[in-house]
Amino acid sequence: MARQPAARPHRVVVLTLDGLLPFELGIPHRIFGRARDARGRPLYEVVTCSVRPPGPVRTDADFAVLVDHGPEVLATADTVVVPASHDLGPVHRTGVLTDELAAALARIRPGTRLASICTGVFVLAAAGLLDGRPATTHWAEAERLQRMFPRVKVDANVLFVDDGDVLTSAGVAAGIDLCLHMVRRDHGAAVANEVARRTVVPPHRDGGQAQYIDRPVPDPQLATTRTARAWALGRLHEPIRLRDMAAQESMSVRTFTRRFREEVGMSPGQWLTQQRVERARHLLESTDLSVDRIARDAGFGTAQSMRQHLQNVLGVTPTAYRRTFRRTGGDVRSGDQATTGFWQGS
């Protein structure tokens, strides 16, 4: 039998604008560029383009970046990412696209997935692509975004928003979370976790986690909840009570809960559920264990409980998730990502 040719890597085009932030420009290249299938083949092709012919693009630092592609490459994209820029000009001041930027966006094919990092969301909003849809940006820019684009449902309290074919993130490191989320959505937790491991970042921060945590760096004079979290991760298969976690740090339940929220950005119960969902995803992808056994090993107790949690978080059943992302025959099989073209019907 003739060997089937390898699928073409998903093409991610990063649209650069003058005043771009170099760190955020590098995020899509680093995250998508590291994703590999079980045979080591790249799952994404990442290219950078400008709204002008190839050439230098100014950054917000004391250097420019040389971009090899003009706007015509946008027509070849499966996903377009718009990173932040400190020099969005009329877009940031008036909410109106420049002719140059509007012409570039017009090249994007219907059905292309769109994503923005930080203030890149202003480009999508000015193009009318976020009307009536949820979105986020850096908390310091959220009020301006809402004022300029009142039809956008701005949520300033989350790391990223996945609205199907359009995704938006908060600033800086939240762009990493968003790109890892897209890899996880496309190819499963195992691939995303390997990218995170190679990039030396946490494999998963839920999009609903708070952007701003009151004490992001714990006072070294104060006890933390790190020991309790490590203790809980080692026994996710067991019932874990809040008072038992607090006891690991010799704190009262009230003090522990407050400190946990300050450090992690969510309640201990929310964090435990998140860790158990991630454990279940890993076992569904990498083992032949029954759904009942995985439910017990992940700490959900019953298959019905795990099914409900996965349905709430992922929108699919355990069986459907396993069928979509199971590694077989040395390859990663990824189910079709059904998306609706944002220009369809317009």
**What is the topology, as strand order, of the major beta sheet?**
2-1-5-6-10-9
Unreliable stretches covering 5 or more consecutive residues: 213-218, 328-346
CATH class of the largest domain: Alpha Beta
Alpha-beta classification: alpha/beta
Number of domains: 3
CATH architecture of the largest domain: 3-Layer(aba) Sandwich
Please outline what is shown here:
The protein is built from 14 helices and 12 strands. It is of the alpha/beta class and 346 residues long. Strand 7, helix 5 and strand 8 form a beta-alpha-beta unit.
Structure in words:
The chain has 346 residues and is α/β, with parallel strands linked by helices. It folds into three domains: 10-199, Class I glutamine amidotransferase (GATase) domain (Rossmann fold, 3-Layer(aba) Sandwich), CATH 3.40.50; 226-265; 269-331, Arc Repressor Mutant, subunit A, CATH 1.10.10. Helix content is 39%, strand content 13%. It has 14 helices and twelve strands. It has a six-stranded mixed sheet. The chain has a two-stranded antiparallel sheet with strand order 3-4. Helix 5 links the parallel strand 7 and strand 8 (153-154). The radius of gyration is 21 Å and the shape is globular. It starts with 9 loop residues before the first strand and ends in a 14-residue tail after the last strand.
